[in-house]
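Dear colleague,

Thank you for sharing your sequence with our group. We've completed the structure prediction you requested, and as agreed, I am returning the results in plain text so they can be pasted directly into your records. Please verify that the sequence below matches your submission; if there's any discrepancy, let me know and we will rerun it promptly.
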Amino acid sequence: MINQSFCILPFIHLHVNEYDQIKTCCYGDPIKQYTTNFDFETDAALSEIRKKMLGNIPVAQCKNCYKIEQHGGESFRQRDTSEWMSKLNLESIDQVRPALIYYDIRNDNTCNLACRICYPGASSQIEKEYRALKWPINPASRTTTLWETIDYSNIQKLLVAGGEPTIMLSFQKFLMQAIEHNRTDCELRIITNGTNLNKQILSLLSKFKSIEFTVSIDGYNQVNRYIRWPSDWPTLVQNIHRLYGITENVSFNVTVSLYNINCLSELIKFLETEYTDPLIMLNEAVNPAPHAEIAPWNLPDKTTALADLISIRSTKTYAKEQDFANRVEYFISRLTDATFSQEKLKRFFAYNDAVDQHRMIQLKDYLPELEKYRYSII
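Please find the predicted structure tokens below.
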């Protein structure tokens, strides 16, 4: 019988968010508050989760992965478990033992962009905008930082996001300390918006042997600028080529939201044309604030979005990458089954119009197809 609850991450990986909450992963729900006396291997809450997983008992904090699997998609649980079982040469989950070797650090919101799909805890620019709009902010505590507790003797991998890692002083400090500890062999996965490549960060990264860049990009040209404001498209395209000059391990993370659900194929086809064998990941957007309904399912007319998603079936990535194909089918399935809510669309436009007014731009100039849905709330 296949274990449908097990995930290797709670056995080897630690994620603490900006509110000092321990999570099973970035996609999971909080488990408990992180404190200075936390012990990864013996913690009671984590031990209970591990016990349930080994017993094939669903874990409440992992419901987001289960939901993806129920709709035919491949979840992070499945992908990461397969990757790490192979990497650690484990033949059975019974061989897995708790050992912290993988750190996922996202407790610095220093950023140069104000992405509409983001929230104050992950972007200093969004935090400034929320304050200007007098929107409520749940201030990040960040009283304890994982940066200070990294065991350089055991670390095998660091995943860092933000904020924007390339301008985070804490990340630069980690790189320097890893070099001092002669641990330039640990894997680095850097989730970046790709708009800032400074000489200092590039010089430090040149010392490391295994680097993967995941570039967050959500649309072609002006669509990406609108979502990931105010990114410059020519600069971004050129910077990605520079990343390929550092490592061949460059992937793309596309957050699928109401903003881009109608026009994903144009981005996919551009990436396939511009870069060699791009690895593209599709992830579902979550609402950055209670009043922001940006999830991709609430469309008054699904025709355009479904046609665009179906057209992605003809891309090279769909034919080559099973994970990508599964995600495309997941979005088609979810969108087909979704029911339209006029109230949710009203909340979307109220949120988006306030942001547009503050930035002195208009939705119709960037995403006219989405602007047309405004008639549905009149």
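Summary note from our side: The two ends are 53 Å apart (CA to CA).

Kind regards,
the structure core
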